[in-house]
Amino acid sequence: MLQGKTAIVTGSTSGIGLGIAEAFARSGANVVLNGFGDTMQIEKTRADLANVADAKVVYSPADMSKPRAIEQMVRQTADTFGSVDIMVNNAGIQHVAPIEEFPEDKWDAILAINLSSAFHATKLVLPMMRARGWGRVINVASAHALVASPYKAAYVAAKHGMLGLTRVTALEAAEDGITCNALCPGYVRTPLVEKQIDAQARAHGVAREKVIGDVLLKNQPNKRFVEVAELAALALFLCTDSGASVTGAALPVDGGWTAH
To answer: What is the CATH number of domain 6-187+227-259?
Structure first.
């Protein structure tokens, strides 16, 4: 399905990003994994995926908070595979605290990784996509791109900003065979969410199970976590010819959360 295409998926050593990367690789795309973690585990993940995919899988350790590192990753990908056809901006971090207590360094880091990295990467790949007359930019936003929750000032601000960036990118690239959309999942059981569960449990002085039922899934009417595979399937659809007219969209995958 994606033979001959090359995709960069940031924040893809685990969780949502890895699920999307796996779906692309199994569909024939060359994939650049990116993210932090144990070096040996990352190499095992890369090798395992390469073994089951009909495509090449490489890894970039680029720090998404650093524009020059992002530039190097994109340039190396283009030098290796000829271009970047699919850009998935998924890298993200989280910190939970009231605004009055929110550390300024955490604010800066979240905005840099969750929002600014998407801008820098998109800016770099768009000329290559325009030259080939085809491209897909997929921004992994959040239900928090559409609604807010307490104690997440930086995350909500970044995800709202990512949705704005998505819409502007879609408008600017609409005549060039390029689409840009935002996936807006509710809570997905990932390492990032596991940390949120622990943080909320500490903040509220309650058990993890209560955080899951009464805090995280309170606003998801179907009362279950979103599956990574569901997001990967949607991302894959957007990269097919059937998804060519879907652009500038915020696509909720949230069990009905934002339908309230």
So the answer is: 3.40.50.720
pLDDT at residue 256 above 90? yes
Residue type, 153: A
Mean per-residue pLDDT, 209-223: 91
> 169 vs 102, 118, 121, 253, CA distance in Å?
30, 11, 12, 21
Give the span between the Cα atoms of 203 and 187, in whole angstroms: 19
Strand partners, 139: 89, 182
> Which residues are part of the catalytic machinery?
155
> Strand order of the sheet with strand 86-89?
57-60, 30-34, 6-9, 86-89, 135-140, 178-185, 250-253
Share of the chain above pLDDT 70, in %: 100
| pLDDT tens, residue by residue, 96-139 | 899 999 999 999 999 999 999 999 999 999 999 999 999 999 99
Inter-residue contact 135 to 173 (CB < 8 Å): yes
Question: In a 3-state reduction of DSSP, which class is residue 205?
Answer: coil
* Residue-range domain boundaries for the chain: 6-187+227-259
pTM for this predicted structure: 0.95
| Bridge partner residues of 184 (DSSP) | 252
**pLDDT for the residue 41:** 96
Q: Alpha carbon of 5 to those of 8, 27, 83, 178: distances in Å?
A: 10, 10, 8, 14
The residues near 113 (Cβ < 8 Å, ≥ 6 apart) are: 64, 65, 91, 92, 93
